[in-house]
Amino acid sequence: MTKTKVAVVASKEKEFTFKEVEIDDPKAHEVLIKVVATGLCHTDLSVKAGKLPSNYPVVLGHEGAGVVEKVGSHVTDLAVGDHVVLSFGSCGGCRPCREGDTSYCVQLEPLNFMNKRQASGDAIFKGNDEKLNGAFFQQSSFGTYALAHERNTVRVTKEVDLRLLGPLGCGIQTGAGTVMNTLNPRAGTSIAIFGVGSVGLSAIMAAKNVGCSTIVAVDINPSRLELAEKLGATHLVNSEKEDAPKVIKELTGVGVDYAVEASGIKAVAESAFHVLANRGILAVVGAPEGGTEYAFDANELINTGKKVVGVVEGDSTVKIFIPRLIALYQQGRFPFDELVQYYPFDNINEAVADMEEGKVIKPILEM
User: Fold this and answer.
1) For the whole model, what pTM was predicted?
2) By residue range, what is the domain housing residue 159?
3) Same domain, 229 and 305
4) Residue 111: is its pLDDT beyond 70?
5) One domain, residues 147 and 228
6) Do 84 and 217 have their domain in common?
């Protein structure tokens, strides 16, 4: 057992409070991580608000980065002292996992949202006077220590500041992977990104890397649109002041080859569909509240050959894709450090407020 300080959401819509508890030793396929820093993601905020499922009280956090402190008896590809990034959980045994599509694991919800510890099913946190749920994304990294499965623990280079790397485990890889893995656009094609938070801005950087010639950023926040231009957007549309579909159709003549919807807003997703050229593909990434339905005219879908695909975690094979993004960052081609702002762990509620108010794109909590 190891003592750890964790940030807890006691119930829906409550602020984070801190507790000191004990965290279990790793089982055969688990690793204990001394957390250095953790990204704060909209998924954490949605669970905190009760818009996505979980069990309360719960320790959230799913963009952890740290140093391996202990390894389970069956762990062979990780060692004490390794620098690691923690990502999402998957079972490894279902058909999607066996075929390499781990982000569509049939156990995705219980392993990532419902606190099911993959290794054994028992509690991660011990010695507290209430049932404290953990195993969020198989890490619960809002703590000074985290317990992860070897499947979602990615060894990374020690040449890059470890504090920066946690967001690669979810938000950054989601945006970049949606472009690089799911859409895989040919050089010279056009793409529109709707919503330029951390996911959308990562998609813009990825689109620049793969050679898209027209990269349209759509948002209502002027400062984020300015950053989008700095990171690779060729055209900016403030959809609060302009009719985005009309502007994009006029810009391209026929619409865009690809679109990414990263806002989670129904009206925005429907607009993104309408800006597609014939045979265009819309990737839906933004996660709205449960029960949200998007409406597209069936005949428009059929007669134009347009496609709509949902994307989880950027279709990433994490132990391959995350190191690739780090290599691009080292080459100066994927400057995701432009998105982040650091906060002390004790200031987690301040970071949440700043994120909700749009003052910061990607907060990182330093332990």
Assistant:
1) 0.95
2) 2-169+335-366
3) yes
4) yes
5) no
6) no
Domains of the chain: total: 2
Residues 228 and 354 placed together within one structural domain of the fold = no
Cα–Cα distance for residue pair 24/30, rounded to 1 Å: 10
List CB contacts of 130: < 8 A, sequence separation 6 or more.
57
The answer on 269 and 186 residing in a single domain is yes
Which tokens belong to 336? Answer: 């995701």
CA distance 153 to 146: 11
Closest CA to 23 of 34, 13, 15, 12: 34
Q: What's the CATH number where 134 sits?
A: 3.90.180.10
What are the two backbone dihedrals, phi and then psi, of residue 309, each rounded to the nearest 5 degrees?
-125, 140
In a domain, 323, yes or no: no
Same domain, 86 and 34: yes
Structure tokens at 215: 């990269």
What's the CA gap between 136 and 110, in Å, rounded? Answer: 9
Q: Please, which pLDDT band fits residue 120 given cuts at 50, 70 and 90?
A: confident
pLDDT band at 126 (very low <50, low <70, confident <90, very high): confident
Arithmetic mean of pLDDT, 337-359:
97
Same domain, 193 and 249: yes
124 shares its domain with 239:
no
Question: Is the per-residue pLDDT at 134 higher than 80?
Answer: yes
The 3-class SS string of 278-326 reads EEEEEEECCCCCCCCCCCCCHHHHHHHCCEEEECCHHHCCHHHHHHHHH
Give me the count of residues in the chain. Answer: 367
CA distance from start to end of the chain: 19
Say which range, 116-120, 225-229, 343-347, has the weakest mean pLDDT: 116-120
CA 280/CA 195 separation, integer angstroms: 19
* Better-predicted residue by pLDDT, 53 or 174: 174
CA distance 38 to 63: 5
